[in-house]
Give the backbone structure.
Amino acid sequence: LFMEEFIRGLPKVELHLHIEGALEPELIFALAERNGMTLDFPDVAALKSAYAFSDLQSFLDLYYSNMQVLLTEEDFFDLTLSYFARVARDNVMHCELFFDPQAHLARGVPIATQLAGIERGCQEALRRFGITSHVILSFLRDMSEESALETLEVALAHRHRFIGVGLDSAERDHPPEKFVRAFARARQEGLRLVAHAGEEGPHHYISAALDELGVERIDHGVRCVESPALMSLLAERGTPLTVCPLSNLYLKVFGQMSEHSLPRMLEAGIKVTLNSDDPAYFGGYMNDNFLAVQEAFGFGRGTWIELSRNAIEASFAEPTRKREMH
Ligand code: ES4
Ligand code: ZN
C-alpha cells in the first residue's frame, strides 16, 4: 500500500499516447450528437461491450470507426483537453502525443483543423495544469509511402506545430523499409523520428526502424527479447523503448502481465519507459499501467525511479524543462 501511494505520486512523462485512443465512449456519444451523426451502437454500454480485442487489427477496426466523430477544431480541442485533465490526476507533467492525420484527411478534415484543435488543447493544458507537451505526426503503415509523403508535404505548412514523425497502425507485412523516403524527408526538415516496431511484428522490424529509418526511439519494441544480439545493441546504444503494458495485454501480445518482457528488458540494461498507448480502450491511463506492472512484478523504489528517469531523458523536452523534471 505504501508502494502504491509512492507510484501514484511519482511525477510522470508520457511518450506513447495516441490522442484518438483517449476518446472515451461518453465523449464519442457527445461529439456524435453535436455533429448530428448516428452511431452503430444505441448507447455507451453497447459500445463498451465491443471493447474486447483478439489482436491489433480487431482493435484498430473499432479505433478508426469511433474516431469518425472527430470533425471540427472544437472536437480535437475537447478530446485533447479531456486527456490532459484526466492525466493531471496521475501527476503527468509532460506528454508527447501522436495523431493520425491520414485517418482524418480521408474523411475530409483538413490537417490545419486537426492541428489547431490539438495545439489549443495542449496550450490550455499548460495554462491549467502546467503540463508541457509536443505533437508527433504519425504515418499509417498500412497506407502507401506516397500517401505518407503527400501528408508530410501538406503538414509542413504547419511545421512549427509538431516536433516529429512516427509510424503506426497494422504492423505485420508493413516493414519500416517501406517508409525510407518519408523518414528521410522528415529528417531533412529537422523533425525528430520515432516508429512503432516489434509490437506484433518480428524483432527484425526493430533493427530495420533503427538502421533504415534512423529513428531515435522505438515504440513498443517488446519483441526484442527474441534476439539477444538486438537486446545488447539497444542497451549499448541507449535506445529508449516506449512500452505500453496494458495495451500489450489487451491486444494479446502477452497472455498475462507476468509473461511480459519488461523485466527481461530492464535486466538487459535497456532504457524502458512506461506509457498508456490508447487509454480509453486498454483499461486505463498512466497510473493504471504503473499499478498493473507493480502488481505483476513488485518492483522496488529503485526500479520505479529508473523508469521515471528514463522517460525524462528519452523525451524531446528542452534541456531546461528536463532539468526541471528531474
Ligand atoms: C496503436 Cl496499440 C497501436 N499499435 C499500432 N498502431 C496504433 N495506433 C493506435 N494504437
Ligand atoms: Zn501505439
Notes: The radius of gyration is 18 Å. The chain has one domain: 2-325. The mean pLDDT is 98. The pocket of zinc ion (ligand 2) is lined by residues 16, 18, 168, 196, 219, 277 (CB under 6 Å).
